[in-house]
Design brief:
The protein is α+β, with helices and mostly antiparallel strands. The protein folds into 2 domains: about 80 residues, Pseudouridine synthase (2-Layer Sandwich); about 180 residues, Pseudouridine synthase. Strands 1, 2, 3, 4, 5, 6, 7, 8, 11, 12, 13 and 14 form a 12-stranded mixed β-sheet that branches. A two-stranded antiparallel sheet has the order 9-10. β1 and β2 form a beta hairpin. It is globular.
Length: about 280
């Protein structure tokens, strides 16, 4: 594991920045996952042996973001209890596609997981095994649609070797739907929750080929976006040993987040964002 991916480490926990495309944990032989990466790192840095790596929460394989792992069973129990009791605070950025967006809103649904297909769907609450799912979202930037001309028209900030690696602006041109940057607070951690609920609300995630509508899939293919435009950028919890509140933030790396207006929004938010926990809303 690249040590730049380690955000924090002590005797009880290790906090990492997971890249999109790597699983949190997998049983597939030969496939990389975060648990193996963390265990190998701890084994090398600790002088050998089989270190304990406790998985207390997960991110979908296509999703980038912050993960905390426990380094002993006591820490694992403490973190797991916080997650079960919804005491952790989890925030995401997502690039979504739609024709109109409410500035903010709450999404409350019941989700049912189909274990045979590894998919989830919105279901009536009376369906057996359907579980309540709740999140709050806010649209913080969006790009108006223009005539689509191809990948070169998506307003990415791109490094230019001729200018010493400085970013240059490329005009954004989008198809029939708008692209928007959403900020999400996740209150419940259901299977594929954000992807399912946002799609059900008419805000499919860019790069999500499992739940997105046909228009969002088409734009994702034309932009060559291969991973879901979703990043777990902020995580807050109580340290299982000291009880101290800890908070970690990252800036998304994914290509789809580099759309010009969205990248400028990150510049504006860095170090200035505050969250109104009681209302579930966001104050900048």
């Amino acid at each position: 594991m690249n040590q730049k991916r380690i955000l924090y480490e002590d005797q009880d926990i290790i906090v990492c920045h997971k890249a999109a495309g790597i699983a949190t944990q997998t049983a597939r032989v030969g496939q990389a996952d975060m648990v193996s990466e963390v265990r190998n790192y701890l084994s090398r840095s600790g002088g050998g042996g089989m270190p304990y790596v406790g998985v207390v929460h997960r991110l979908d394989q296509p999703v980038e973001g912050i993960l905390v792992f426990a380094k002993n069973k006591k820490a694992a129990a403490g973190l797991s209890r916080q997650i079960t009791e919804e005491q952790t605070e989890k925030y995401y950025y997502a690039v979504v596609c739609g024709h109109s967006f409410a500035r903010q809103g709450d999404l409350e649904d019941y989700l049912w997981k189909d274990g045979r297909t590894n998919t989830s769907s919105v279901a009536p609450p009376e369906i057996k095994d359907a579980k309540r799912a709740f999140l709050h979202y806010e649209i913080i930037a969006q790009r108006e649609p223009e005539a689509f001309t191809g990948m070169e028209g998506y307003g990415m900030y791109q490094g230019n070797e001729d200018t010493g690696g400085e970013s240059e602006r490329v005009e954004t041109v989008v198809g029939g739907c708008k692209l928007a940057l959403a900020r999400i607070r996740l209150y419940t951690g259901r299977h594929h929750q954000i992807r399912v609920q946002m799609s059900n609300a008419g805000m499919s995630l860019l790069g999500d080929y499992k739940y997105a509508d046909e228009e969002a899939v088409a734009i994702s293919k034309q932009m060559h976006v291969k991973e879901a435009a979703l990043c777990a950028y902020r995580l807050s919890f109580l340290h299982p040993g000291t009880g101290r509140r800890m908070e970690f933030r990252i800036r998304p790396e994914g290509k789809c987040f580099r759309i010009a207006e969205f990248w400028e929004t990150f510049d504006r938010l860095d170090g200035t964002e505050e969250v109104n926990i009681e209302s579930g809303g966001f104050v900048v």
